[in-house]
């Protein structure tokens, strides 16, 4: 067991206490002033167990599917450069979602209906055995049109070659559709009337919408009178996704499933904010529309898969293991010049199993079980205490490539500070103003990740507990503002509340996947997720540390902490 290092002089050495003039007990400790340094683009920022192509630019995950024992992941790919452009469909295959073998690009600009780019789309497995991909082509007139691609040879187990029939395009931007705002067809679903349905993201008069089409043969598509759903003022909906989740349990369902006990998720990627949001509701099969449980036209209060960097996500049904899995693009936060120096840009989030919370209010996500096969020796602690100002190093684990699971137990909620209701609208602001250095009652407590020995660089992932008028609220923050000494890197602070009853549950769990330039955090068993991209210099110098800390006045218990090194799988080598 790594010893519980009470670095009592921690505050004397690293932090200087000073009154901030707020509540009497509230004090601020300061991290060392950062000495900003100029640009470096290191290969240490390349991830070990997150999906990346061998080189060049990647953005959205496309057409993920499980077919005849093989997982396929396609992705938006520039074969020529580390910046966006020349978009084709990269392709990799796997039998375990962890190790990936690269294939030649599956779809590339070749005909008048996609000559200027093969943009995002989805796979549908028709009649259980015939895969088809619907994707957006940028045609010779630079219009966004929807096309189909089908495998050239169904007996090829890896589905390496795809053809784009000459009868494309299937759907065109006519009758009021803007040719520059009409893209990203979702996985199609089959109705009991024998017709296929698919929706395509669009923007009409500033409103985000999913335009619905129907077809009996997957070739001739007719636009339905009403869209699947529209929301005022949300801007262009990119990469919409629409799928069923059972009201109870974690099992995934085929996209066409629509029984009574099933809820529907409508996810949209908002191009203005580059964030993925979703609504829960029902699919009205008579009217062919999505009816949300709550209709709120302010997207700022819509639920999110992830409150950090996480975009253009797409789910698929894993027939073999009966689960629904999501992929998402994690863009870089360093500069285009860095991308060119590194020779690559863009990674995928760890694949996550996704299901409806037992209270029916939100989705829950958890890294796929297979990821645990990469866990190697590490640190295991039990029944440890974190007193006020406590900081201890989690030793015995590779701090740049780890999987950490920790439970924080709160012996008493008495010191929770009152919640100002205005904070509910802007948790990231709260994370900035009451960051890890600001002493509170119950928290901040959590992890300091990818930290230098003197904490000049670190990413703080932490909780605070507040007392609201009707109970307690748990805030999760992922603060990157001190993640790197490099000034040119984007370093926001992210935050969100965790939908949990801390009085009843008594403890808060945190799992964090650390993989060089990515920090993916799952709080409350996956009820709130925040992903960050970080570029610390310490990754280059190699002196990297991982700490647990408590800067609240209440002692926090750690009944269990487990941290593992993560092995490097074969990803596109
Ligand atoms: N990326 C694709 C589009 C999609 C956008 C182009 C979302 O199809 O709308 O690379 O990141």
From TrEMBL:
<keyword id="KW-0325">Glycoprotein</keyword>
<keyword id="KW-0326">Glycosidase</keyword>
<feature type="domain" description="Glycosyl hydrolase family 32 N-terminal">
    <location>
        <begin position="50"/>
        <end position="367"/>
    </location>
</feature>
<dbReference type="InterPro" id="IPR050551">
    <property type="entry name" value="Fructan_Metab_Enzymes"/>
</dbReference>
<dbReference type="InterPro" id="IPR001362">
    <property type="entry name" value="Glyco_hydro_32"/>
</dbReference>
<feature type="signal peptide">
    <location>
        <begin position="1"/>
        <end position="18"/>
    </location>
</feature>
<dbReference type="Pfam" id="PF08244">
    <property type="entry name" value="Glyco_hydro_32C"/>
</dbReference>
<dbReference type="GO" id="GO:0004553">
    <property type="term" value="F:hydrolase activity, hydrolyzing O-glycosyl compounds"/>
</dbReference>
<dbReference type="GO" id="GO:0005975">
    <property type="term" value="P:carbohydrate metabolic process"/>
</dbReference>
<comment type="similarity">
    <text>Belongs to the glycosyl hydrolase 32 family.</text>
</comment>
<protein>
    <submittedName>
        <fullName>Beta-fructofuranosidase, insoluble isoenzyme 4-like</fullName>
    </submittedName>
</protein>
<dbReference type="InterPro" id="IPR013189">
    <property type="entry name" value="Glyco_hydro_32_C"/>
</dbReference>
<dbReference type="InterPro" id="IPR013148">
    <property type="entry name" value="Glyco_hydro_32_N"/>
</dbReference>
<dbReference type="InterPro" id="IPR023296">
    <property type="entry name" value="Glyco_hydro_beta-prop_sf"/>
</dbReference>
<keyword id="KW-0378">Hydrolase</keyword>
<keyword id="KW-0732">Signal</keyword>
<dbReference type="Pfam" id="PF00251">
    <property type="entry name" value="Glyco_hydro_32N"/>
</dbReference>
<dbReference type="InterPro" id="IPR013320">
    <property type="entry name" value="ConA-like_dom_sf"/>
</dbReference>
<feature type="domain" description="Glycosyl hydrolase family 32 C-terminal">
    <location>
        <begin position="370"/>
        <end position="565"/>
    </location>
</feature>
<dbReference type="InterPro" id="IPR018053">
    <property type="entry name" value="Glyco_hydro_32_AS"/>
</dbReference>
């Amino acid at each position: 067991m790594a010893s519980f290092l009470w670095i009592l002089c921690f505050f004397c050495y690293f932090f200087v206490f000073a009154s901030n003039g707020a509540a009497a007990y509230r004090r601020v400790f300061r991290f060392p002033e950062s000495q900003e340094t100029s640009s470096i683009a290191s290969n240490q920022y390349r991830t070990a167990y997150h999906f990346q192509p061998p080189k060049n630019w990647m953005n959205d995950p496309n057409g993920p599917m499980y077919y005849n024992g093989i997982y396929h992941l396609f992705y938006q790919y520039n074969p020529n450069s580390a910046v966006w452009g020349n978009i084709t469909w990269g392709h990799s295959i796997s039998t375990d979602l962890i190790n990936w073998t690269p294939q030649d690009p599956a779809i590339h600009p070749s005909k008048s209906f996609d000559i200027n780019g093969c943009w995002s789309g989805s796979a549908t497995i028709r009649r259980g055995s015939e895969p088809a991909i619907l994707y957006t082509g940028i045609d010779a007139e630079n219009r966004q049109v929807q096309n189909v691609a089908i495998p050239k040879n169904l007996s090829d187990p890896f589905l390496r070659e795809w053809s784009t029939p000459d009868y494309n395009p299937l759907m065109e931007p006519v009758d009021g559709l803007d040719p520059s705002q009409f893209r990203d067809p979702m996985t199609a679903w089959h109705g009991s009337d024998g017709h296929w349905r698919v929706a395509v993201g669009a923007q009409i008069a500033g409103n985000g919408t999913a335009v619905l089409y129907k077809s009996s043969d997957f070739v001739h598509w007719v636009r339905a009178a009403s869209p699947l759903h529209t929301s005022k003022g949300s801007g262009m909906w990119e990469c919409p996704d629409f799928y069923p989740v059972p009201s109870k349990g974690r099992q995934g369902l085929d996209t066409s499933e629509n029984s009574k006990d099933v809820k529907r998720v409508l996810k949209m990627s908002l191009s203005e904010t580059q964030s993925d949001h979703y609504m829960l509701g029902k699919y009205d099969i008579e009217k062919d529309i999505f009816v949300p449980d709550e209709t709120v036209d302010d997207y700022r209060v819509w639920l999110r898969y992830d409150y950090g960097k996480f975009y253009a996500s797409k789910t698929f049904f894993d027939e073999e293991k009966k689960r629904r899995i999501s992929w998402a693009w994690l863009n870089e936060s360093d500069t285009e010049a860095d991308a060119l120096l590194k020779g690559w840009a863009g990674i995928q989030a760890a694949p996550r199993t996704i299901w409806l919370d037992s209270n029916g209010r939100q989705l829950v996500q958890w890294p796929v079980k297979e990821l645990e096969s990469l866990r190697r020796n590490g640190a295991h602690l039990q029944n440890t205490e974190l007193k006020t100002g406590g900081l201890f190093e989690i030793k015995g684990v590779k701090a740049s490539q780890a999987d950490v699971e920790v439970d924080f137990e709160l012996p008493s909620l008495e010191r929770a500070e009152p919640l100002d209701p205005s904070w509910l609208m802007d948790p990231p602001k709260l994370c900035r103003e009451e960051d890890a250095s600001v002493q509170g009652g119950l928290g901040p407590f959590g992890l300091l990740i990818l930290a230098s020995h003197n904490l000049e660089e670190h990413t703080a992932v932490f909780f605070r507990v507040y007392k609201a008028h009707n109970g307690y609220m748990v805030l999760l923050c992922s603060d990157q503002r001190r993640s790197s000494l490099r000034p040119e890197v984007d370093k926001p602070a992210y935050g969100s509340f965790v939908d949990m009853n801390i009085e009843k549950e008594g403890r808060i769990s945190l799992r964090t996947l650390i993989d060089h330039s990515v920090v993916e955090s799952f709080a409350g068993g996956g009820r709130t997720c925040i992903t960050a991209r970080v570029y610390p210099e310490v990754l280059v110098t190699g002196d990297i540390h991982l700490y647990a800390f408590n800067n609240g006045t209440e002692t926090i218990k750690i009944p269990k902490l487990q941290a593992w090194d993560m092995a490097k799988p074969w990803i596109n080598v």
